Amino acid sequence: MPLSPANAFYLMIGLLSFLLMGIDKYKSVRKQWRISEITFMGLSILGGAPGVLAGMLVFRHKIRKPLFYLGIPAIYLFHRALLTPLLLRILIEAGFGW
Hints:
By secondary structure, this protein is mainly α. The chain has one domain. The chain contains 4 helices and no strands. It has helices spanning about 5-30, 35-60, 65-70, 70-95. The protein is elongated, with a radius of gyration of 16 Å.
C-alpha cells in the first residue's frame, strides 16, 4: 500500500531529523562545527519531533537541555492534539468514519 503524500512527508522529515541528531552528536564528540538548536526546533515544528526524540534517546544527545527534553515532547503533543482531530474530521466527512 503506497504512502499518502502527508505520511511520506512525515516519514522523510522524521528520518532527516533523526539522522541530523546523529550527525550533530558525532560532530559534538569531535568538537566540530555543529547543527544549530533552532534547526532541530524548526524540524520538530514541521513534523520531525518523533525523529528528534528518537535521536535524543538513541544517541543520548541533548538529553540534559530543557529546551529539548521539554520542548520537543510539547511540540509532538501539540501536533497530535491539532492534527489528529483534523484528520479524523476529514475522514468522517469523506465517509470513512463511524
